[in-house]
Input
Amino acid sequence: MRLELITIVVAEYDPAIEFFVRVLGFDLVEDSPSSTNDGRPKRWVVVRPPGAVTGILLARADGEAQRAVVGDQVAGRVGFFLRVEDFGDAHRRMTSAGVEFVTEPRNEPYGQLAVFLDIAGNRWDLLGPREEPGEEER
Output
């Protein structure tokens, strides 16, 4: 058993693809024409971090109820966690690409952490290995 996909509701497909692929470095796994349950056209868009098994289905908001949750899928909490091997490099790269960080990097018992917003406004943790005391001075 495995978790294959999670869904993030977005305003539009192409800007979301651009953010996840160009800015975060995810792979575009699929971008195919599809249909809603009532036959209207949509796209099946899946992205995922390189080497990951679980992907993200980028679903364009359809109707007022879905538009209302864009950027607030988990009620303002951090709902997504992106673990990287080189926290400093990822943080610098994302900052220079215009990603909005809403906290400064800090150490927690489980590693380095900074909260950022995705293109829809959802909160993510950028997580990396714990920085040992004195490492920041090197």
About this structure: The CA atoms of residues 19 and 126 lie 15 Å apart. Helices lie at 13-23, 64-69, 87-96. The longest helix spans residues 13-23.
